[in-house]
Amino acid sequence: MQPSKTTVTGLFSTPHQYQIPIFQRGYVWTLEKQVGPLWTDIQDRADAVLEQQSLASTGTTAALKPLQKHFLGSIVMTPVPNSFGRAPAFEVIDGQQRSTTLHLLLLAFRQAARELIDSPIPQMLDGLVRNPGPYQRAEDHYKVWPTQAGQDEMRRLSDTATHAQDVYTTYPARDARTRIERPLMVQTYLYLYHACLAYMRGVDLTDVVNPTADPTFGDTLIADIRRNNDVSPLQGHMALESKRAQALYMALADHVQIMTLTLEAEDDPQVIFETLNARGEPLLASDLVRNFVFLEAARQGQAVPQLYERYWSPFDLVKTTGQGVSANAYWREKERQGRLTYPRIDLFFYNYTILRSHEITLASHVFQSFKAWWLKQLRDLEVELAQLVASSRHFQELVSPEGTGYLAEFARLVKSLDVGTVTPVYLALRERLASDSVELRQALGDLASYLTRRAVCGLTTKGYNRFFMRVLQAVLGAPEAPHIALRNVLLAATALSEVWPDDALFSDKWCHRPVYKELRPVKTCGVLRALEYAARGSQQGSNHVPAQSDLTIEHVIPQSWEKLPTYQITDMTEAQRQIRETVVHGFGNLTLLTQPLNSSISNGPFADTQGVGSEQVLGKRSRLGQSALLLNTYFQQTALGVWDDDAIANRSKALLKAALLVWPKPVGGSAAPVAVASAISGN
């Protein structure tokens, strides 16, 4: 490894290109966490240059003291074999965020300095932001060539004809009332462009705008970039000073240092990458996995760009209108599992690592566990990547269900019950059983029954990770078919922490447990919604059920029943009150609506009443019966004139009859919708 110290201008002074390997993550630095602090450090050195110049003008000896240099960090790179007609290049192993940001700073500084009259600085910067060529490939002119997600932005921001107004127009922050997130690279460019202009006007971004308010100029600038299409200059009425621009250039040329580390043949890029990755924005476990896999591919002499494009690029990139691409935000969005949230891509690799290693791992140890599994034997990269991509699609259908098929409905039930520990088992079943097979339907039906029955019975989910590891190992390693192995493990479990509840326990808890309070509303809603889905058949024309977020739980006897004369119990004893408090929150008294009833109906009488002039006033029963949901067909019974504890018990039994059809132990086949609908309606 060859270490060398350089400055910002020195880093870009020779006609080299710094290439970001296609398998590295895109640009992720944010204005608050990294870009703003970096600018503060650079501004500090520029201020020091101005102070030294001021001292020199007074003739004081303090001006002779060398200025302290600021160390920005390191950049690790490896030479790219040269080809005729190509710019000499280095691949950036570590420090791509830093090198990209510094290049954006020079581009922004050049544009800002053009506002000065007769300044040589824009021309001085031209040679630092563009390789002169000629070259056989146009992209060789760019000093930094990012991953595919940032190439369009780099082309536009590097174009000498691009002005700030062009950037505002091309990358707006809003379309009418809709907010649009500007690419992070564009946000950084705009921030640094306005920071340079502000510095030339003597504005410190860390100063408060108003002594009586908290926001700084930097805060105001960030808000403007994020909210408004056009970004207003800070203190634009103030004159630009050439001497301040010169001080900024001198700081970049002499007083801000970077350590470059150029790898030699015997150096291991992956080991160095893992050691240094803690700098800057922390890498996701998936970032480490990606770099490990593709550096391994490079070692084997594989065609890395083709492998990346074919298998990995969908994790990082998404096509935009036209021929462009941008960063794929889907995989970076947070997904909750248990009490914690993770980026979806890390949650996928957490579950995928468990699937492949057959071992429990911690979310914080995903990369180490993945690497240990990978190194156990020689891997066929193409085969492994193809399996990984297939599993990622199965994971996506589980965490982001779409459509009305049984796979999507199973996924919705799992999400509502919050049992992400079943994910590796699901991935294994999807890998081994055809999506339209009877075997997969049976396996997922067994899992749905197991999870729902345990949830309704209030049995613990602690230890699910260990139990479902045993299930996974059976599905993957047992001599029998996966769906048979799954059922055998579920049926063999006898400990209370693992048992598949029988009909007796399930029936008792279904009818007598205050699930709304103890199971929590979101899970209760998920169970009721699953019944609604199962009841849909050809008579409905469609099995579409509203999303859970569009449904609300309605208590037929209101929760505030003690204050409502219609639902009070005459001469109530304490025992009666406790029984009522339980049944009010049980399945028999709960239903779903696509929109909540207004309070006067929700708390009003159950039966129809006579209003002024003998006009019939519809009661709660009739209002519920008007619902399009099959769960509410029960309330269409004309003989149902009173809603009390006995009526609740009768409906509990009706819903239980449906639940036993939908979640039998074990599952004997799909429940007929007509039978489920008939049970729900009380027939």
UniProtKB/TrEMBL annotation:
Q: Which domain of life is it from?
A: Bacteria
Q: What's a Pfam family in this record? A: GmrSD_C
Q: Which residues cross the membrane?
A: none
Ranges for domain GmrSD restriction endonucleases N-terminal come to 10-294
Query: What range(s) does the GmrSD restriction endonucleases C-terminal domain occupy?
Result: 500-657
Name the UniProt record assigns to this protein: DUF262 domain-containing protein
